[in-house]
Amino acid sequence: MEVMIKIEKLSKYYGKGGSIKAVDNLSLEVYKGETFGFLGPNGAGKTTTVRMLNCIIKSTNGSASVYGFDINKDSENVKKVTGLLAESPGLYDKLSAYEFLEFIGALYDVPDDMLKVRSENLLNLFGLKARSDHLLEGYSRGMKQKVLLAAALIHDPPILFLDEPTSTLDPKASHMVKDLVKDLADKAEKTIFLCSHILPVVEELCDRIGIISDGRLIAVGTIDDIIKRSGKSTLEEAYIALTGGVDERELLSWREQGDAKA
Ligand SMILES: Nc1ncnc2c1ncn2[C@@H]1O[C@H](COP(=O)(O)OP(=O)(O)O)[C@@H](O)[C@H]1O
Ligand SMILES: [Mg+2]
To answer: Which domain holds residue 70?
Structure first.
């Protein structure tokens, strides 16, 4: 299998003297054409990882290559082959959807004629054509998310990073975005790195997942593998056990200690 993202001992520390280990010694591979789910609780280090892989922030230690390009040495090429739907992106409310795509396309140096065709295609594909001349300020959250997803695709990158793509959306909008992501994986054959703390999203969309907790990768594999290895019967149970939910044995040992004292 062709490796599209190779992460080797990547770390990012924040704070005085690097006291916050946001990402700690992460090694991981993502293969061509898969939708890889990066699952973990809030604060686990997902966004930090995505920012490093998109050359928005520098790593503290370690390395990664994206489509063969080194994130530490070749950020220009990395940015050409990746699209990013950020967790809390800025959107230009006073632009129309069409203008926004033109603006982002220009940032990515997409040639004018190609930009026109791509913008039209994406607006059609995402069902945004009818209102593409309206200002974004009037759009619903779901529609805004679709515009942002279209913008992430404007330079036709082979790899797409989606950071919590549905977390702020209502169920209907969330469903719509999930369908688009499925199409991008199946029909457009994008390699997708999807961060989420929402289990059903990951279960529905992802071929393989990695679970991150406190900056450390604690499990990686297919969902079935992870469930089996954890000795549980659902991903939810496995996830809770792995990310240090209430451990039954700990509870038991605590009770036994209590009993002994009594
Ligand atoms: N710019 C920053 N400065 C200091 N700490 C940060 C910064 N960004 C993130 N962190 C910390 O790093 C950890 C990981 O955060 P983040 O990558 O945003 O997690 P996630 O996306 O999984 O919710 C958290 O403890 C968070 O508070
Ligand atoms: Mg995040």
So the answer is: 3-90+154-261
